[in-house]
Amino acid sequence: MRKWLDRLYLASAWLAGLCMVGVLAMVALTIASRFFGFSAAGSDAYAGYATAGAGFMALASTLKKGEHIRVTLLLGALRGGAHKALEVLALAIATLLAGFLAWYSAYLVWQSWEINDISVGIDATPLWIPQIPMALGTLIFFIAFCDELVLELRGKRVAASQEDAHHE
User: Fold this and answer.
1) Residue 51 β-bridge partners
2) Pick from 32, 40, 49, 113: CA 20 to 30 A from residue 125's CA?
3) Is the whole model's pTM more than 0.90, yes or no?
4) Nearest-5° angle of CA 37, CA 38, CA 41?
5) Beta partners for residue 118, in sequence order
6) Cα gap 60→54, rounded to integer Å
7) Could you report the per-residue pLDDT of 93-147, keeping only the tens digit for each?
8) Is 165 among the domain residues?
9) Domain tally for the chain?
């Protein structure tokens, strides 16, 4: 199971990278269209969709690498059982919030598909298509939080520090 989860987080990071390549491609297309005088309708919107996709697809990977910003002032002052209890509480709340985010992101995709919601631009893109990376990214983020919570409860979680994240 551990290998499968690690591959899932890695795949999510790679998809985030591909979304960033998509942003680059759309920006380059927009620049080329202005320079050479042809129309690249919707390229700005697609760059925005790819930017959002990159952000959401990168959530789980950055969580697992300890690169999310954490306020540890209170945690740093606690030791033993109090430290562990607060860590479990924080992870449980974060897991719950990530679950709500994943649920409502998936619901948004379904609702956009059901009502045939389209973008207001000239490209008239069905919005459920660019919303998929958001829903997928938040689902993987939820899985990553579940993973962190289970590891913490089993005493096997290795919390990466900010200093460790800067040295990788």
Assistant:
1) none
2) 32
3) no
4) 130
5) 126
6) 11
7) 999 999 999 999 999 999 999 999 998 888 888 999 999 999 999 999 999 999 9
8) no
9) 1
